[in-house]
Design a protein that fits this description.
Helix content: 40-55%
Shape: globular
Distance between the termini: 75 Å
Strand order of the largest sheet: 3-2-1-6-5-4
Strand content: 15-25%
Radius of gyration: 18 Å
C-alpha cells in the first residue's frame, strides 16, 4: 500500500541519517582526540570512513603553501588510482576559478568535469585524474583559506545532495580544527624546548 511504501522510505531515510551521524561522531572524536604523533593516521582514517560511507572514489586534503597547493592526505576506493604523488606542488592558479567561492566559505561543486569550459585551468588536471564529478569544501581559519577537502567521483557522475554537502562542510571544519590545534601544540612544544 502507499502507506507501507511511505513508511518504508521514511524508515530507510532515518537509518541513513543515523548511520551518517555515527560516522560524523566517530570521525569527530578521532580527530579531536588525536595527538600530533598520530594526526596524519587519524586524518587518513577519517577520509576512508567518509569515502566508504558516501561511496566516493577518492577523498583528499590539499594545503596552501605560498603560491602552490599540496595534496597532503588521500584515500582511494579499491581500483581507483591514487593521485597524491602527482599533486605535490601545483600552482594555485590551477584552481583559480574556485578561489573566490572557497574564500567565502562556500563549496565548489563540479557535477560534470568533461563539461567544463575548455579554457578553464582546472579542467585538464581533473580529466587527467579521471574525475567525472567532484566537490571541494574550504578549510578556513579566521577567514583565511588554508586548504580544502575534496571528494571525487571517478566511476560515474555524481550529484551531491544538500545533506551530503552539509556533512562534508562539518567534516572540513573538524579537520581544520584538528590541524590548527596540532600546529599550535607543535609551536608550544618548540617554545618549551627553547626555554628549557
Amino acid at each position: 500500500s502507499i502507506y507501507d511504501d511511505v513508511l518504508a522510505a521514511m524508515t530507510a531515510e532515518a537509518a541513513d541519517i543515523l548511520a551518517g551521524q555515527r560516522v560524523v561522531r566517530g570521525v569527530t572524536e578521532r580527530l579531536l582526540h588525536a595527538g600530533s604523533s598520530d594526526l596524519d593516521a587519524r586524518i587518513g582514517d577519517a577520509l576512508r570512513d567518509l569515502g566508504e560511507f558516501l561511496d566516493m572514489d577518492r577523498v583528499y586534503v590539499f594545503a596552501f603553501e605560498g603560491s602552490t597547493i599540496r595534496n597532503t592526505h588521500e584515500w582511494c576506493a579499491p581500483g581507483i588510482r591514487p593521485e597524491i604523488d602527482n599533486l605535490s606542488a601545483m600552482p594555485v592558479e590551477t584552481i583559480g576559478h574556485w578561489l573566490p567561492t572557497l574564500s567565502v566559505g562556500r563549496p565548489c561543486v563540479v557535477s560534470d568535469v568533461p563539461g567544463l569550459p575548455l579554457d578553464s585551468p582546472e579542467r585538464a588536471v581533473l580529466i587527467e585524474q579521471g574525475i567525472r564529478s567532484l566537490i571541494v569544501v574550504p578549510m578556513l581559519v579566521r577567514g583565511e583559506l588554508m586548504g580544502f577537502v575534496g571528494f571525487d567521483a571517478v566511476r560515474s557522475h555524481r550529484t551531491f545532495t544538500p545533506c551530503e554537502i552539509g556533512l562534508l562542510q562539518w567534516i572540513s571544519a573538524v579537520l581544520t580544527s584538528a590541524v590548527v590545534r596540532e600546529r599550535a601544540d607543535t609551536k608550544a612544544e618548540r617554545a618549551e624546548r627553547r626555554l628549557a
